[in-house]
Fold this protein.
Amino acid sequence: EAGVVQSPRYKIIEKKQPVAFWCNPISGHNTLYWYRQNLGQGPELLIRYENEEAVDDSQLPKDRFSAERLKGVDSTLKIQPAELGDSAVYLCASSSQVWGEKTEAFFGQGTRLTVV
Amino acid sequence: DAKTTQPTSMDCAEGRAANLPCNHSTISGNEYVYWYRQIHSQGPQYIIHGLKNNETNEMASLIITEDRKSSTLILPHATLRDTAVYYCIVRVVPFYFGTGTSLTVIP
């Protein structure tokens, strides 16, 4: 069975340009998470979806970041416009239930974004 | 918040047991202890989790103290492929990873 799939794997863009990341979670997983990981740091949650509903987006910088999960399956995270400080690895994860209720989350390989 | 304290880095000789400690003194009674690891340039990988009792699977063992204020992840026979950053997580809302322990397995 395929795990969490993310694309692209790497992305280099100039500042002020838009960028989008795509995530396909494990089949049947209702909960989807987007994390951002800065160099040398642990992942930090940006947004959590339960099916198609964003239930926790308190850490998402809403002035430039947006996310959607249409039909409660695939998800897209967008940054517009990108800033130099957005350079990081963007990770997607999914779980069959809310993570922490005896259920682990599975992570994708991440998208490494470099803003120049 | 139930945050964790882990040593920044550890070394372990190949073939020996790696014991990674985690302090979580503010853990709540119904919060699980999860361990993940992240090998360079990969996403975090689930290792093991537990609530009160010690747990073992094909990857590792998890020892949780009786008062649940600390735990130890044990890799019984460390290999070079176990070199990674290991995260101890006790509160998954708001999903706090911390900086983890960088384990280096030495040949």
Remarks:
- Chain A touches chain B at residues 4, 33, 35, 40-45, 48, 56, 58-59, 91, 93, 98-100, 102, 104-110 (CB under 8 Å).
- DSSP finds no helices and eleven strands in chain A.
